[in-house]
Design goal:
With 324 residues, the protein is mainly beta. The chain contains two helices and 23 strands.
């Protein structure tokens, strides 16, 4: 059968995304590097793109187009956006020069605890095609740095502000506008200055923090998104026994609990196979439940009290998405 496109269900928890920026605000500056190497806590996850092998990219593609999530933790809002993961950076641009953004959200207690705290957002970016560029924070209003235009080359941009309007979330956003930009790394930290990078004696930008521990970054990202894969002839995705009504919940075990009940979609042809029965295609997933780090995917219309195996033909990917 022809592979089916991924469905687009929504997770049971979500937040409304803001509209286009309203303009610059707060205290913004370019650079202000530190002398020597200073380090601070980075509130962002999966935000060092200087080495491709360490970037969390569970979907596994090098290029993503349009709106939605590509690499883990970062959501595009532009229908004409194109993002490519290269060996030494994350290239982002909007093919129609629009106001598309790339966003990461900090939520709930972690966000509200930052009310009244001075925060510094920073980004080390290689501008390939000069033009307007914006990045910053959003809570109930935009707190943004507008850098327009930027010349070609590497720039360290920072924005510092004490935010008092945080009700539930903080959003770190990048808006490349018409600029073709390669993001090397970005950071959000408490304090009045950036500790992301400094210039060495030769005038080259150097990241302060050591390379990220990919295993820990993956674990942080898996609270929001997980992928299960299989192909025909390989290990099945899951096995379970149907109840007396022919309903079955296939369990998926993940390294950490997801932040809420995820929306589950799949690409390819998902199938079930019962004892002594032919393969049966799964047209849709009825619902999901979560218990600790286990997500149960429910399928109906099967024979009662029968052991079933869930697999894909010729291959399948299941996306478990509880992202904001």
């Amino acid at each position: 059968p022809n592979p089916r496109p991924p469905t687009q269900p929504q997770p049971t928890c979500h937040h409304t995304q803001p509209s286009a920026p309203r303009g610059p605000a707060g205290r913004a500056r370019r650079g202000r590097p530190l002398v020597g190497i200073a380090r601070s806590r980075n509130l962002l996850r999966n935000s060092n793109f200087s080495r491709k092998s360490l970037v969390v990219n569970q979907k596994g593609r090098d290029t993503y187009e349009g709106s939605g999530y590509g690499i883990d933790g970062w959501k595009s809002t532009g229908s004409k956006s194109v993002q490519t993961l290269e060996e030494d950076g994350w290239v982002i641009h909007d093919t129609d020069g629009g106001l598309g953004q790339y966003q990461q959200v900090i939520e709930d207690a972690e966000a509200t605890a930052l009310n009244g705290v001075e925060l510094t957002a920073s980004i080390l970016v290689d501008i390939r095609t000069g033009g307007p560029f914006q990045f910053g924070l959003f809570s109930s209003v935009y707190h943004a740095m507008e850098a327009a235009p930027l010349s070609a080359g590497i720039h360290l941009l920072t924005h510092t502000e004490t935010m008092t309007d945080i009700t539930s979330t903080i959003q770190y956003f990048i808006s490349p506008r018409a600029t073709n930009a390669k993001v090397i790394a970005c950071q959000l930290e408490p304090g009045d200055r950036q500790t992301l990078a400094h210039k060495d004696t030769a005038g080259n930008w150097v990241l302060n923090n050591p390379l990220p521990n990919r295993a820990l970054e993956l674990l942080r990202c898996q609270q929001y998104f997980n992928v299960a894969r299989t192909s025909f002839g390989t290990q099945s995705l899951s096995t379970a026994i149907s109840d007396t009504n022919g309903m079955i919940g296939f369990p998926f075990f993940f390294p950490t609990a997801m932040r809420c009940v995820p929306a589950v979609s799949f690409t390819g042809t998902l199938r079930v196979h019962g004892q002594g029965q032919d393969f049966q295609n799964v047209e849709s997933i009825m619902y999901t439940t979560v218990q600790d780090n286990i997500v149960n995917v429910f399928v109906g219309g099967l024979q009662p009290l029968t052991t079933y195996t869930l697999d894909g033909h010729p291959s399948v990917e299941l996306y478990f998405d509880s992202s904001l």
